[in-house]
Amino acid sequence: MALPIRVVPATPNRLAAFPSWFPTPESLAQWGGSGLRFPLDAAQIAAMLAETLTEPPLRLAFAGLIGDETVAHAQLALDWTDGVARLARFAIAPCCRGQGLAKPFLAEVFARLDEAGDFPRLELNVYTFNAPAIALYEALGFRCEGIRRSSVKVGDARWDTAIYAIIREG
Ligand SMILES: CC(C)(COP(=O)(O)OP(=O)(O)OC[C@H]1O[C@@H](n2cnc3c(N)ncnc32)[C@H](O)[C@@H]1OP(=O)(O)O)[C@@H](O)C(=O)NCCC(=O)NCCS
To answer: Which atom of ligand 1 lies nearest, measured to the CA of 139?
Structure first.
């Protein structure tokens, strides 16, 4: 069966509509952490993608396309020394959520990770209120390793960060 979305490297052009996915400071921080400035702009996107151009790459970044439209994005931050990859900045476009795109998109992203190198540990951070994302990660086999309480400040709020990981070999 053909994949519903085509997974390609992320480029500035493919992420041009991306800032509209995050219309509030909270939605931007939920996706990308508190280090980003709202609104997301081309300069911040370029800075993220610059890490994909190092040798070896510090980051892989992917766009999921339906036709020519970008409907999914994910990044993998790579620790080559210890073989640890961190899934980061993953989102499905607001128009396309709830349609079952997340799992096939991530399966392809993880296949690309295997092509890039040996990363037995795959980890991620997710805010504890993010129930859709947590349900997805648990369905994929990620396990919660702990919670960094009150670890992020967004406006006047403080958020708890859950650390999830999956060990991908024997
Ligand atoms: C998390 C996110 C990527 C899920 O994308 P999606 O397109 O809604 O997901 P799908 O329709 O493919 O569903 C995949 C799984 O996610 C979970 N899920 C999705 N929406 C859910 C909801 N509203 N409530 C509970 N679980 C949900 C389910 O486990 C679902 O699997 P199932 O349908 O077999 O039960 C999407 O909500 C998103 O982009 N959120 C904003 C950005 C973000 O928070 N990213 C994560 C940062 S850690």
So the answer is: 29
Domain extents for the chain? 6-167
Convert the pLDDT of each residue in 84-133 to its tens digit: 999 999 999 999 999 999 999 999 999 999 999 999 999 999 999 999 99
Residue with tokens 């939920």: 30
CATH dotted code for 6-167: 3.40.630.30
* Closest residue CA from atom 20 of ligand 1: 132
Ligand 1-lining residues (CB < 6 angstroms):
30-31, 90-92, 97-103, 126, 130-133, 135-136, 139
136: Cβ contacts below 8 Å, ≥ 6 apart: 102, 103
Q: Kindly state the average pLDDT of the residues 45-74.
A: 97
Distance 81 CA to ligand 1 centre (A): 31
pTM (two decimals): 0.96
Which residues are within 8 A (CB) of 56 and not within 5 positions of it... i.e. 6 or more apart?
78, 80, 117
